[in-house]
Write a structure and sequence with these properties.
With 613 residues, this protein is an alpha/beta fold. 30% of the residues lie in helices and 23% in strands. The mean pLDDT is 89.
């Protein structure tokens, strides 16, 4: 049945849970899909942006066989132990075989291959991985250079497998090894059960105390089935999924959801949306593969608006699905107006297999909304006494969620307090409210994480590196609004008494020490003193406001509007908003306002324009 309202979700919930999700393991679910859709296409890989229409693809039957072979390989390599497979792979077909093969046979741990080797090794050690599978030497993406230093630090690795050719340095060749394995399913008695751990996904930064969220089979199946239902997916759908599999949206919200319904997943080259040549031909490739669903973070939406492609036929596309970072309502409206393709937003977390609420495909988009909670899911607001409720909504406060997709916690249980509680609630760290129709709105964040292009960055990781400099007394990293990435990290630093700090010198010091490239600060600003609370803690809301004003002043200058507007922040129930004051007279002010609105459209910022009084 189509999902439009909360009543429709209640109707789903009135029936037995087994009607919603009949399977108890990933192995069962993929096996059922292969049986039901054996000759339909499950996976297609666009190897090159110059795709001539002959892209390798797998039917559901062939896909299941390669997953089975991979599961058997992992079993063989661990000789009776439960396979625990660390993955350093881009979104290529072998990554799909490895992820699902690992989960069928044991536990998967997909890792962001852009991290530095030391950070990757910390995650592997924390996961207890006994197998590492990584992309072998490749001219377009050098992951392999990190493998040897990782292997030296991780003595628990019993096998290292290379994808894409012969394995150097004693590593096994994935293609050659899986070819020796039978395509039949593994012994069902060895399937992972509904509440067995299927995967570990890292989140929130990685240094000496890695943060690995545990997923059970039930968690992943519930999230994926919920996404499929809310998006009204069918076997006719073709999902263009450029998300990497170390990101829960790529694995479940847009990946497993499609496979559960018999649709086709199209992978847009090894580099995905980081491939400029692919992006330039995006719409022609959408036409060639008759894509029906686009999966993209808000920054990609902004990029697609800049592509001049009037010749390609986009009639196959029924929706663009987005999430991972805040969605500016103006950006969604611009995309819908230009391409006549509806945009649907999402709220998700790694800790609950990627999804909490989704804007249903069959309901109209509500600006600012993250949609309705999945079936069998409760979303509550823990009110903050200092925040006011908007009319027609719950009080504004911290959102928390409970349901079958909420994971059992982190591998290090000492990290659970404040996020997971004993009653099954997961505190999101997002500030928001729920309206009378049940829609969830996020209006800010209480947690400290910086979200850059849907990638979570722990500011503590950045700050710790700056504090290693002998002349730095305090360092605070915050997210600065950015049109393309949503947020980029910036750092505010104060020096020890009597020393003089230089931003360029600090950058040279920290650059080799920051554990991952996305965490490298976009800007370093040195202050005589950082703002602090009454108890001496750095007051980051003031720094976020400072970072926001900095970037908006810069954009006003670039747009030639610096003499037309002043910009400042003002307090709101959920934090702060931006106020622009129009300094011009009545006649030119309309044009100036329109130019300012165009500047602000890509930003996920609340703002208003007021006349000079």
């Amino acid at each position: 049945m189509p999902i439009r309202t909360l009543d429709d979700i209640r109707e789903v919930e009135s029936r037995p849970y087994a009607d919603f999700m009949p399977h108890t393991s990933i192995a069962q679910a993929l096996g059922a899909a292969a049986s039901r859709h054996a000759q339909r296409t499950a996976l297609t890989f666009v190897e090159s942006a110059l795709d001539a229409g002959v892209s390798p693809s797998w039917t559901y039957a062939a896909f299941a066989q390669d997953v089975n072979r991979t599961a058997r390989l992992f079993q063989r390599l661990t000789s009776g132990e439960v396979p625990r497979v660390a993955m350093l792979l881009p979104a290529i077909p072998e990554a799909y075989f490895a992820l699902w093969g690992a989960e069928v046979a044991g536990v998967a741990c997909p890792i962001n291959y852009l991290m530095q080797a030391d950070a990757i090794a910390e995650l592997i050690l924390a996961s207890g991985a006994n197998i590492l599978i990584a992309l072998g030497p490749h001219p377009d993406l050098d992951i392999w250079a990190k493998v040897e230093p990782v292997r030296r630090r991780c003595p628990g690795l019993r096998a290292v497998v290379a994808v894409g050719g012969s394995g150097p340095d004693g590593a096994m060749d994935f293609a050659a090894e899986v070819a020796t394995c039978a395509p039949d399913p593994i012994d069902p008695r060895r399937y992972r059960g509904a509440d067995d751990i299927a995967a570990l996904f890292h989140t929130g930064g990685t240094t000496g105390a890695p943060k690995l969220a545990q997923h059970t089979n039930r968690n992943q199946l519930h999230a994926s089935r919920g996404a499929a239902l809310m998006y009204a997916m069918s076997e006719e759908d073709v999902m263009l999924n450029g998300f990497p599999l170390f990101h829960v949206a790529g694995s479940f919200v847009f990946g497993l959801s499609t496979l559960l319904t018999g649709g086709e997943v199209v992978l847009p080259t090894m580099l995905g949306m980081r491939n400029a040549a692919f992006v330039a031909r995006y719409w022609s490739l959408v036409e060639r593969h008759q894509v029906t669903l686009l999966a993209a973070v808000p920054t990609v939406i902004a990029t697609l608006l800049s592509i001049a492609d009037l010749a390609s036929d986009r009639r196959s596309v029924r929706a663009l699905l987005t999430g991972g970072s805040p969605l500016p309502s103006e950006l969604a409206a611009q995309f819908e107006e230009r391409y006549r393709i509806p945009v649907r937003n999402i709220l998700g977390m790694t800790e609950c297999a990627g999804v909490i609420s989704i804007e249903p495909f069959d309901a109209p988009r509500t600006p600012g909304s993250c949609g309705l909670p999945l079936p069998f899911t409760a979303v509550e607001v823990v009110p903050d006494p200092g925040m006011l409720a908007c009319e027609g909504t719950s009080p504004t406060g911290v959102l928390r969620v409970r349901g079958p997709h909420v994971g059992p916690g982190y591998t290090d249980a000492s990290r659970n307090p404040g996020t997971f509680d004993a009653d099954g609630w997961l505190t999101t760290g997002d500030l928001g409210h729920v309206d009378l129709e049940g829609r969830v709105f996020v209006t800010g964040r209480s947690k400290d994480v910086i979200i850059r292009s849907s990638h979570n960055i722990d500011p503590g990781v950045i700050e710790a590196v700056f504090l290693r400099h002998p002349d730095v007394e305090l360092a605070a990293a915050v997210g600065q609004p950015d049109e393309y990435a949503g947020e980029v990290p910036v750092v505010y630093v104060s020096g020890r008494p009597g020393v003089s700090l230089d931003a360029a010198t600090l950058r040279a010091f920290v650059e080799p020490l920051i554990p991952e490239r996305p965490a490298m600060p976009k800007r370093i600003e040195i202050l005589s003193a950082l703002p602090t609370t009454a108890i001496g803690k750095v007051f980051k809301p003031a720094l976020r406001e400072r970072a926001t004003l900095h970037v908006l002043q810069d954009r006003l200058q670039t747009a030639g509007l610096l003499d037309a507007f002043t910009v400042e922040t003002e307090a709101t129930p959920s934090g702060f908003a931006v106020r622009f004051t129009n300094l011009l007279g009545a006649s030119p002010s309309v044009s100036a306002d329109q130019r300012l609105q165009a500047v602000m459209a890509p930003f996920a910022l609340a703002y208003r324009i007021v006349p000079l009084t």
